[in-house]
Amino acid sequence: MSGEGLTIRGLRVSFDGYTAVDGVDLDVRPGDLRFLIGPNGAGKTTLVDAVTGLVKATGSVRFGTNGDGTELIGKPVHKIARLGIGRTFQTATVFEELTVLQNLDIAAGAGRGPLTMLRRRKGIPQPVAEALETTGLTALRDRPAGVLAHGQKQWLEIGMLLVQDVRLLLLDEPVAGMSHEERESTGELLRRVSEDSTRTVVVIEHDMDFMRSFARSVTVLHAGKVLSEGTVAQVQADPKVQEVYLGRARAEESADAAPAVPSPATGEATPTTTASAQEA
Amino acid sequence: MSGLSITRRGLLTAASAVGASAALSACGAKTGSGTSSDAAGATADTSGSTVKIGLLNSLSGTMAISEVTVHNALLLAVKEINAAGGVLGKKLKAVSQDGASDWPTFAEKAESLIKEDKVAATFGCWTSASRKAVKPVFEKYKSPLFYPVQYEGLEQSPYIFYIGATTNQQIVPALDYLKKQGLTRLYLVGSDYVFPRTANKIIKAYAKANGMTVVGEDYAPLGSTEFSTIVNEVKGSGADAVFNTLNGDSNVAFFKEYKSAGLTAKSMPVLSVSIAEEEVASIGTQYLEDQLTAWNYYETTPGAANEKFVKAYQAEYGAKKPTSDPMEAAYISVYLWKAMVEKAGSFDVAKVKAAADGITFDAPEGKVTVDGATQHVYKTARIGKIGSDGLITEVWNSGKPVKPDPYLKGYDWASGLS
Amino acid sequence: MTVILNQSFTGISIGAVLLLIALGLTLTFGQMGVINMAHGEFIMAGAYTTYVLQKAISGAGVSLLVALPVAFLVAGAMGALLEWLLIRRLYTRPLDTLLVTWGVSLMLQQLARDIFGAPNVQTRAPDILTGNIAVAEGISLANSRLFILGLALLSVLALTLVLRFTPLGRRIRAVVQNRDLAEVSGIATGRVDRMTFFIGSGLAGVAGVAITLVGPIGPTTGTNYIVDAFLVVVVGGIGQLKGSVITAFVLGVLQSVLEYSTTVSVAKVIVLVAIVAFLQWRPQGLYTLRTRSLA
Amino acid sequence: MTTTSAPTTPAPEVTKATSPLTRFRVPGGFALGAVLLLGIAPLALTDFRLALLAKYLCWAMVAVGVSLAWGRGGLLVLGQGVFFGLGGYAMAMHLKLADAADTGIPGALPDFMQLYGTGEALPWWWKPFGNPAFALAATVLLPMAVAAVLGFFVFRRRVRGAYFAILSQALAAALAIWLVGQQATTGGTNGLTDFQGFFGYDLDDPANQRTVYFVIAVSLLLLMAAARQLFVSRYGELLIAVRDSEERVRFLGYDPANVKLVAYVVAAGMAGLAGALFVPAVGIISPALIGVVPSIGFVIGAAVGGRASLVGAVLGAIAVAWAQSTLSDAFPGAWTYLQGLLFVVAVGFLPGGLASLGAVIRRNRIRTRSGEAA
């Protein structure tokens, strides 16, 4: 049962005695669009860092499409990346001096042999063309990434994960600082991406509206531990969550945004964690 | 426009060029064929009313400290010679090139002086390394170089005149002096380059044959300024005297450390062969008082010729400017060349070389004579003591000019050296 | 045994100089991350300050003591000026800073040549600093080195106190740890940078005064020390005073012992290679400030 | 739906180089360079000037590598003197051995060893350099091997930026000091000099000196073509990506250490070849070409001309070398100021060097245009 998708057991990360992630267990199945929420310092980003090998951690993180999956703890970053695990950062990091096309082409090419590397790129590889299409950046492909708008950079990052043929996408606050329209587009993009039944998507987000609109399932972290898990509705109804989000949650979110839980726009706000992949 | 096609085009061009160069090289001489020597010869331009001579010194970089003074002395000599009517009725025009304390640059500038400026002779170089770098250039173009600095011997290029002392005119007399003083246990301290290493080889051979002992030997990288350990070792060695072949900045650090360690000229004198008046001024007499030096000339050397030289130099460059051995050697090198040219009646290098033997000059250091066979100069060896006023006064001299012997052939103990 | 003891004391002598020349860099390089190749020329400026003051004030001891604060101000002002003119424009480009300040260092050397002449100049050390005291049988420590050691330790103490307990120190640490946060907290980070640079460069000036007791004073004085100074800070670890202190003395003793058992050249090569190997083992140096940044 | 080895869709305008002017810019420029170096320069210059140019072209060859490693890869290679020196010494050792063999005396030692050495047999590590093929290969492969070993450790441990630069300098200093210290076997400060022949040809002969020039000029052009290919290849794009965000590249599944290693090793090989050809052209190799200052000198030209632009770096290297050699005689002091100022201005205020003047303007224009679009 724990063979598919991302399986985390007893994950623990400490910095100089401060424990940022404190024994987290987490399962995310393929086809899910899991949101990771929690107050500042809850350990969300650190958890993603640990999964991608950026920080040292103890415990077990396995990822695979069948069987037991591969243990990720202890592997270097680039080896983890080659297992089909990709991430974005809070501040979009694209290669500003390279064009959109070059950015995507590099992302697509981690497995290229030396001879291919030493040749000039001819034409546009199929996955790159598809990613351009999916992210809507086709018209901008020859622009240096540095001149893109903030939202476009985030899409480019997601596109780079797509061409990598990533099976597990870890997105760190992808809509921070975006306009309303950009958020909508990003959400749609994420939904399209996660429709592939073999992909697993995990999104760290602060934006509750965005979460309510697009999450299939939610995990709430608090002080390095899992506080609550379930559908948006289940989580929002959890008193422990309300406790943590006390003040802010009561005042602004539970009060006026709660009715939005069964989102009319998508009708997808109540899938369970075992949401079927047939939707795709 | 793929990269590949560019490369291909590049290769084509390259291939044709290789072809072209192969064709060219077909007319180049093979080694040992002997044809090349005629192809490259100096063509000094002496046709006009002036004759160009080259001054090749480091005007910038780390060696500028020393070499600028030599450059000044050369310019003074040129000025005096021109004021007195020039050479063979032609005024001298000095062309200065900056060796920039960098050996390959010296080689480049030497070539520039010979090929571009068509100088009749070149004066300069200080370090052995710069001389070694330009030697093939002067030999290739058969143009003469006058080298003004004491050096490690073991060299006799047909196109270099060695106006500074060779080892038997500086180091060997210095050892004679130490032996006479009963200072027989020596500690050798030097910079890590060819002169100190060769000098110390000679010293060790001398010591072996003369009942002296070398109790220690240390080399510091050129420019090194940390001498705690070396001085510590010197102090504990029980030596009678230190033979110092350090160069440049290292001397400053060494002598400061030496004094700090409580060592003095009384308890353990240091005999230096690279510290002249100029260096004394930059180290400080506080640290150097009563220490020994070995040269062929001091600012205080008696004689009318020296009085005139010191006066002229200070009139030109400032009243407090000291004169030193390499400066004096540089100064007389121009006069020696003038005398050779005038004896030969021509600027032609072969004739000048042929005329060199036996040329004498009443130099500030006393009478000097050119030895045609070695192209070195007979020089009087002088041991000096550094005074509190920064001047060096002579405490001993060899009595008469010493015949130059760059390969120390006249010394039995040196037979195994080279 | 005597040998080991003796070389240890010699090593401390060497380490004292290393520490003093590296101290300013622990601020400008260690705290601010600026690779200032002209730092050596601030040392040179301190040395020349001693020379100039000695011409004005005859007593060697008095002029040396006066030179300490004056050199601090002179070199500090040069540093602050350099920061204001160039370095502040280059904070995001550390490698370019290295090259730009190397250009500045060339110009400062030439300036010294034009003002004071190419040859080295001499200063007179006060007699009390030219002697030595016996530590044990056959082992002595030069007074000049003791003076440098004292000066270095005093500077470390003063610097620590300033960083820990003064408002300026708090600001400096705040800017180092989180520039953005410091800025929004109302700290004029630009002015703090300049002050940090002033103090760091000033310490180089103080080192320059002390250097006159043991080394040559000339246009290239700074270049003699600059690489060593950087190595001390690199090995000691960025942003950590204690790392530099330990490193300076360890390198000093290592150098001294190796010089004793091999030759100076070989010792130098071994020390350099050892440093390279050490950085393989600990790329961030002996002590590091842990941050959550990507780097 | 997404396969890793997807067919490529034909791209009508991947690059915007459609106008004839831009299309022939690169091959045209290359041809122009070839004509200038191989045709006009040898005809227009005296033997002496040509020899000088040969020396400058050697610096330019180093600059090609600097442009790759530093300009594209962001590796401030402040220790290129090490590789230049290794290449130079490998060549010089062979020439010295060949000269010794030419004397006809069996087992003759190179001249400097007879003077300063212990007078014993040739050190074992000199012996292979008697073989011309080995020596030639070593001029390039030895620096590359050293760079590979060094880079392997340094990049793996993520030593970078300032640390890498300072480390490079420390190594350059160490090698220079070591060479100086081994006088009996390396010639010490003097270095190796006074070469008679070059693979059987007499180096004193002006015709042979011209051949050396041609070899150098052709080598430079080849290196530039090779570097250009690397620049426009996928590897070149990846290298820029590593320079701009090493971590990000890591998350794409590449090991940035390997990407940097390739640039570093190639740059080292180029410096080695430059050093090897410098020896017959100038007639000397010495520790003075290896230490900290010359190593910084190797990046000056690239910085002034434009580190990221191949042509800029090459022209910059040639121009700075020319200025150094011409101005330092007339105004030794002023030249030092100018050199310092060049660094401050070129690196501090025009980081792309002189070559970027046009690009800065062009980029501004693109910015304006995209601003309008957005």
TrEMBL record, chain A:
Keyword Cell division listed? The answer is: no
Does Nucleotide-binding show up as a keyword for this record?
Answer: yes
**Sequence segments annotated as region (Disordered):** 252-280
Q: Looking at the UniProt record for this protein, which Gene Ontology cellular component terms does it annotate, in alphabetical order?
A: plasma membrane
| Keywords per UniProt | ATP-binding, Nucleotide-binding, Transport
**Entry protein name:** Urea ABC transporter ATP-binding protein UrtD
- What gene makes this protein? urtD
- Enumerate composition-biased segments (Low complexity): 256-280
Superkingdom classification of source: Bacteria
| Classification via PROSITE patterns | ABC_TRANSPORTER_2
The Swiss-Prot or TrEMBL record annotates one GO molecular function as: ATP binding
**UniProt domain ABC transporter: residue ranges:** 6-248
UniProtKB/TrEMBL annotation, chain B:
Keywords linked to the UniProt accession: Signal
SUPFAM superfamilies noted in UniProt: Periplasmic binding protein-like I
Record carries keyword Signal: yes
Q: Which CDD domains match?
A: PBP1_FmdD-like
Q: Which InterPro entries match?
A: ABC_urea-bd_UrtA, Peripla_BP_I, TAT_signal
Q: Where is the signal peptide?
A: 1-25
Highest taxon above the source species: Bacteria
Its recorded name reads Urea ABC transporter substrate-binding protein
Organism whose genome encodes this protein: Streptomyces himalayensis subsp. aureolus
Identify the taxonomic lineage of the organism of origin: Bacteria, Bacillati, Actinomycetota, Actinomycetes, Kitasatosporales
From TrEMBL, chain C:
Q: Which GO terms describe its molecular function?
A: transmembrane transporter activity
Keyword terms of this UniProt record: Amino-acid transport, Cell membrane, Membrane, Transmembrane, Transmembrane helix, Transport
Query: In terms of domain of life, where is this protein from?
Result: Bacteria
Q: Where in the cell is it found?
A: Cell membrane
Topology in membrane = Multi-pass membrane protein
Q: Which residues cross the membrane?
A: 12-36, 56-82, 146-163, 197-217, 229-254, 266-283
Q: Which GO terms describe its cellular component?
A: plasma membrane
Annotated GO biological processes are:
amino acid transport
Concerning InterPro entries, the annotation shows: ABC_transp_permease, ABC_UrtB_bac, BCAA_transport_permease
CDD domains given in the database record = TM_PBP1_LivH_like
Family label: Belongs to the binding-protein-dependent transport system permease family. LivHM subfamily.
The protein depicted here goes by the name Urea ABC transporter permease subunit UrtB
Query: What organism is this sequence from?
Result: Streptomyces himalayensis subsp. himalayensis
From TrEMBL, chain D:
* Record Pfam families: BPD_transp_2 (PF02653)
Superkingdom:
Bacteria
Q: Which GO terms describe its cellular component?
A: plasma membrane
What InterPro entries does this protein map onto? ABC_transp_permease, ABC_transptr_urea_perm_UrtC, LivM-like
Q: Where in the cell is it found?
A: Cell membrane
Q: Keyword Transmembrane on this protein?
A: yes
Does Nucleotide-binding count among this protein's keywords? no
Its keywords, alphabetically, are: Cell membrane, Membrane, Transmembrane, Transmembrane helix
Q: How does it sit in the membrane?
A: Multi-pass membrane protein
The protein's GO terms of the molecular function aspect are: branched-chain amino acid transmembrane transporter activity
Mark the transmembrane ranges: 26-45, 57-86, 133-155, 162-181, 211-231, 261-278, 284-301, 308-325, 337-361
Name-wise, this protein is: Urea ABC transporter permease subunit UrtC
Classification from the root reads: Bacteria, Bacillati, Actinomycetota, Actinomycetes, Kitasatosporales
Instruction: State the gene name recorded for this protein.
Output: urtC
